[in-house]
Amino acid sequence: MSTLVIAEHDNSSLKPATLNAVAAAQAMGAEIAILVAGANCAAVGEQAAAVAGVSRVLVADNPAYEHQLAENVSLLIAEVAAGFDNIVAPATSNCKNTMPRVAALLDVSQISEILSVESADTFTRPIYAGNVIATVQSTDAKKVITVRATAFDAVAAEGGSATIEAVPAVHDSGLSTFISEEVAVSDRPELTAAPVVVSGGRGMQNGENFKLLEGIADKLGAAIGASRAAVDAGFVPNDMQVGQTGKIVAPDLYIAVGISGAIQHLAGMKDSKVIVAINKDEDAPIFQVADYGLVADLFEALPELEAKL
Amino acid sequence: MKVLVAVKRVVDYNVKVRAKGDGTDVDLNNVKMAINPFCEIAVEEAVRLKEAGVATEVIAVSVGAKPCQEQIRTALALGADRGIHVEAEGRLEPLVIAKLLKGVVDKEEPQLVILGKQSIDGDNNQTGQMLGALANMPQGTFASEIKVEGDKLNVIREVDGGLQTLSLSLPAIVTTDLRLNEPRYASLPNIMKAKKKQLDVYTPEDLGVSVTSHVSQLKVEPPAERKAGIKVEDVAQLVDKLKNEAKVIS
């Protein structure tokens, strides 16, 4: 058995979610290779080769793959997949975009966002916003799988010594063109990888008030998130959204401020180790999952919390 | 141009779904059903394209058992011109749905297919991308803005780090994210009118697709429950607990 793991990267560095996907691949008990598809991405190939437990790294370095266009990358992965039993990728926005195309090209089903590997063909995954966990069995000879990164402990980024091979295949479908990208620049850790997340909800009242979270986030080395209600109200951009349709996080500490706790939000954060809720409504459902609940006006509690940290 | 929009019948998003006691499936008895929220956004976008004079016809398609005609009627009440129901029973995997939609695409030859990015029951997030591969069309997934410019479609996409803009050749696939638009409510006169709109029914055999399952669901169970913790009196106690009990801050 052999497993191909798709690397998540930005052409210069390997993203941590890849290490969680490798952990899932290890649980499948197969020999592991990583595919790095990108442009001028040799550095990523070297980082991938250092990942513990990986035997081969395949690098497809071509301008056609620079922006991870699904049309091109899926053709590449489907070709490289010929030599593997499992194709595994972290459930990042890139891989969610590309992998179903790969599965369709291979005429197999995809198993999305697995939480555990029960056996070579059996996995668990969340359905209905995580209110139900399904155990599913695949009959496909070749399996295409995405991995919920928070459900698998990352393997070590160092210690491996995989061979690096170039993949010369060039697939440029000509169907899509990259125009531009607006990426939020922040000194804070990435939301999905941060050890602490401080999130604001509708109770923040406006975008300006999110500044109240910044001081706390700075002191805790935290990322800042938001509920869908706060995003819909236009307080903050959508890439901060935590929930069923946003980002899935599982930090050591999650502080929910002015968030009522709709099931769609809980789906994105209820696997956090410790949850703190600050809300003035003592009946808010968020308190049902919080380890520590503080019923208080957030506009009084936040400055006090920042001062005491 | 012709726009095809896919809609799925799902449990209403306000319903908290539970696993049955015997673990065989989720309990959907007497549960309110609705159009998947992302599909509703897809319908709205298609109707807006028609109102803007970009789309000439909007066709709503749904794959599933007979009752999903209710959701097609909802789409027709929201402004779609006619409906197509692909009648198929049982648990349908995204790959099968994508193949059936490909059959409809071959018949109708739309320039644009708009789907929701995921359905809130299976949470798979696959069908649009699979249809893209099967129909060899480009895709703009997780779209927060789309604009037709000549024979191209510009799509702004929600990605992990922010926003990405792509230019796609037409025909193309779009899957909707939450911020693409805010769907309207169907008015009573439009609900009445929708009952008279054309609705064609196909079987998988009509479309030359065999409905085979690649994945079986062995069991369903509730997730590990999180117990509610304690209420703290004030900020000082909260900080103390986090430092000395949970030991998550220093």
TrEMBL record, chain A:
<keyword id="KW-0249">Electron transport</keyword>
<dbReference type="GO" id="GO:0033539">
    <property type="term" value="P:fatty acid beta-oxidation using acyl-CoA dehydrogenase"/>
</dbReference>
<dbReference type="Pfam" id="PF00766">
    <property type="entry name" value="ETF_alpha"/>
</dbReference>
<keyword id="KW-0813">Transport</keyword>
<dbReference type="InterPro" id="IPR014729">
    <property type="entry name" value="Rossmann-like_a/b/a_fold"/>
</dbReference>
<feature type="binding site">
    <location>
        <position position="202"/>
    </location>
    <ligand>
        <name>FAD</name>
    </ligand>
</feature>
<keyword id="KW-0274">FAD</keyword>
<dbReference type="GO" id="GO:0050660">
    <property type="term" value="F:flavin adenine dinucleotide binding"/>
</dbReference>
<keyword id="KW-0285">Flavoprotein</keyword>
<feature type="binding site">
    <location>
        <begin position="258"/>
        <end position="265"/>
    </location>
    <ligand>
        <name>FAD</name>
    </ligand>
</feature>
<protein>
    <recommendedName>
        <fullName>Electron transfer flavoprotein subunit alpha</fullName>
    </recommendedName>
</protein>
<comment type="similarity">
    <text>Belongs to the ETF alpha-subunit/FixB family.</text>
</comment>
<dbReference type="InterPro" id="IPR018206">
    <property type="entry name" value="ETF_asu_C_CS"/>
</dbReference>
<feature type="binding site">
    <location>
        <position position="279"/>
    </location>
    <ligand>
        <name>FAD</name>
    </ligand>
</feature>
<feature type="domain" description="Electron transfer flavoprotein alpha/beta-subunit N-terminal">
    <location>
        <begin position="3"/>
        <end position="182"/>
    </location>
</feature>
<dbReference type="GO" id="GO:0009055">
    <property type="term" value="F:electron transfer activity"/>
</dbReference>
<feature type="binding site">
    <location>
        <begin position="241"/>
        <end position="245"/>
    </location>
    <ligand>
        <name>FAD</name>
    </ligand>
</feature>
<comment type="function">
    <text>The electron transfer flavoprotein serves as a specific electron acceptor for other dehydrogenases. It transfers the electrons to the main respiratory chain via ETF-ubiquinone oxidoreductase (ETF dehydrogenase).</text>
</comment>
<dbReference type="Pfam" id="PF01012">
    <property type="entry name" value="ETF"/>
</dbReference>
<feature type="binding site">
    <location>
        <begin position="227"/>
        <end position="228"/>
    </location>
    <ligand>
        <name>FAD</name>
    </ligand>
</feature>
<dbReference type="InterPro" id="IPR029035">
    <property type="entry name" value="DHS-like_NAD/FAD-binding_dom"/>
</dbReference>
<dbReference type="InterPro" id="IPR014731">
    <property type="entry name" value="ETF_asu_C"/>
</dbReference>
TrEMBL record, chain B:
<comment type="similarity">
    <text>Belongs to the ETF beta-subunit/FixA family.</text>
</comment>
<dbReference type="InterPro" id="IPR012255">
    <property type="entry name" value="ETF_b"/>
</dbReference>
<dbReference type="InterPro" id="IPR000049">
    <property type="entry name" value="ET-Flavoprotein_bsu_CS"/>
</dbReference>
<dbReference type="GO" id="GO:0046395">
    <property type="term" value="P:carboxylic acid catabolic process"/>
</dbReference>
<dbReference type="InterPro" id="IPR014729">
    <property type="entry name" value="Rossmann-like_a/b/a_fold"/>
</dbReference>
<keyword id="KW-0813">Transport</keyword>
<keyword id="KW-0249">Electron transport</keyword>
<dbReference type="InterPro" id="IPR014730">
    <property type="entry name" value="ETF_a/b_N"/>
</dbReference>
<protein>
    <recommendedName>
        <fullName>Electron transfer flavoprotein subunit beta</fullName>
    </recommendedName>
</protein>
<dbReference type="GO" id="GO:0009055">
    <property type="term" value="F:electron transfer activity"/>
</dbReference>
<comment type="subunit">
    <text>Heterodimer of an alpha and a beta subunit.</text>
</comment>
<feature type="domain" description="Electron transfer flavoprotein alpha/beta-subunit N-terminal">
    <location>
        <begin position="23"/>
        <end position="211"/>
    </location>
</feature>
<comment type="function">
    <text>The electron transfer flavoprotein serves as a specific electron acceptor for other dehydrogenases. It transfers the electrons to the main respiratory chain via ETF-ubiquinone oxidoreductase (ETF dehydrogenase).</text>
</comment>
<dbReference type="Pfam" id="PF01012">
    <property type="entry name" value="ETF"/>
</dbReference>
<dbReference type="InterPro" id="IPR033948">
    <property type="entry name" value="ETF_beta_N"/>
</dbReference>
